[in-house]
């Protein structure tokens, strides 16, 4: 399932894809969505936008990692059209 959402009030903005995995996908209700975000963002601002769009994610996001174009990121990031973000929840294995 793919959803489409927009975060208003910020310029300039870019359209990108956000992918959700495991429990994050269940909480978001989709595995990926198109999202419009400011070009200058941070992990915190991305997570805040996602929590607003998907309230069930609020409790999970503090434990998640964010990947930007296949690289884990922290702090500030510069986004470009067509970028991919991935929300990776904590995992355990045996």
Outline the structure in words:
By secondary structure, this protein is of the alpha/beta class. It has a single domain, classed as Roll (Ubiquitin-like (UB roll)), CATH 3.10.20.30. The protein is built from 2 helices and 8 strands; from the N terminus they run E-E-H-E-E-H-E-E-E-E. It has helices at residues 22-28, 43-53; strands at 2-6, 13-20, 32-38, 40-42, 65-68, 71-73, 76-78, 84-88. The strands form 2 sheets. Strands 1-3-2-8-5-6 form a 6-stranded mixed beta sheet. A two-stranded antiparallel ribbon has the order 4-7. The longest helix is centred in the middle third of the chain and has 11 residues, at 43-53. The protein starts with a strand and ends in a 6-residue tail after the last strand. Mean pLDDT is 88; it is low at 1-5.
Brief account:
This protein is an alpha/beta fold. Helix content is 19%, strand content 40%.
How many β-strands, per DSSP?
8
Which CATH first-tier class would you pick? Alpha Beta
Strand composition percent: 35-45%
CATH H-level superfamily title: Beta-grasp domain
* Structural class determined from secondary elements: alpha/beta
Q: Give the total of domains.
A: 1
What's the arrangement of strands in the largest beta sheet?
A: 1-3-2-8-5-6
Q: Major sheet, described briefly?
A: 6 strands, mixed
> What radius of gyration results from the CA coordinates?
12 Å
Could you give the distance between the termini? Answer: 29 Å
Helix content: 10-25%
**What is the mean pLDDT?**
88
Number of alpha- plus pi-helical segments: 2
Would you tell me which CATH topology applies?
Answer: Ubiquitin-like (UB roll)
Stretches where pLDDT falls below 50 for ≥5 residues? 1-5
What is the string of helix and strand elements? Answer: EEHEEHEEEE
CATH architecture: Roll
Overall geometric form: globular
């Amino acid at each position: 399932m793919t959803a489409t959402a927009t975060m208003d009030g910020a310029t300039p903005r870019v359209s990108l894809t956000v992918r959700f995995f495991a429990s994050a996908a269940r909480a978001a209700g989709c595995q990926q969505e198109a999202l419009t975000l400011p070009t200058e963002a941070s992990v915190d601002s991305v997570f805040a936008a996602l929590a607003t769009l998907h309230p069930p994610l609020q409790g999970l996001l503090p434990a998640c990692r964010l990947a930007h174009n296949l690289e884990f990121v922290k702090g500030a990031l510069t986004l470009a059209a067509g970028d991919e973000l991935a929300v990776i929840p904590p995992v355990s294995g045996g």
